[in-house]
Amino acid sequence: MKIDILTIFPEMFKPFISESIVGRAVKENLVEINIHNIRDYSKDPHKKVDDYGYGGGKGMVLMPQPIFDAVDDLKTDDSIVILMTPQGEKYSQKKAYDLKDKKHLILICGHYEGFDERIRTLADAELSIGDYVLTGGELASMVITDSIVRLIPGVIKEESHLNESFNDGLLDYPVYTKPVSFRGMDVPEVLLSGHHANIDKYRYEESLKRTKARRPDLLEGENYE
Ligand code: 4GS
User: What are the φ/ψ torsions at residue 220 (nearest 5 degrees)?
Assistant: First the structure.
């Protein structure tokens, strides 16, 4: 899997691609992540990438030329071009599973007021990470990359994502570590019992209880009784 990210703030990605689980996946060549500065593709003598929007009022708008040239340069028959925007389809764990099997993703991060509408014609998909407004698409592209990279085989232990929130449509069950007793709060007895069937039952019931209380929308149309 190769992920190319187009941004006008490449420095924002340095720790993201070198630290923690994503950093390890890159070092072990389980994923290739390339950060491209949109400015490097500008044909303007001053490397301009944005300008005032026609019609006035709003702030700076990303120009089509550098982004079209960047996509022309990077795109192959295997590429999926994705635009980060609050107007896109709402991102989800299901979408992460869809994308993890693709060979090549090109993620385009807008900044400031937005991007020239013609840039939309380059995109195979538009994704939003949620109903709020960021200063740029960089964090959105990192959220999407992070959630995909951890699903690539070999990046984390398979068991870690079989039983996690959303995979079975339920939120996570509670987990505990040492000590058994802390400030008057005890680890539930069943987890210390070594009885695996009872532990599975306890965890399923806790997941269900938590989902009903916090995210009943996840249970809609499903029968988990
Ligand atoms: C999002 C979002 C976003 C919108 C980029 C205003 C700068 C900003 N991108 N999911 N212009 N939410 N983008 O807020 O993806």
Answer: -55, 130
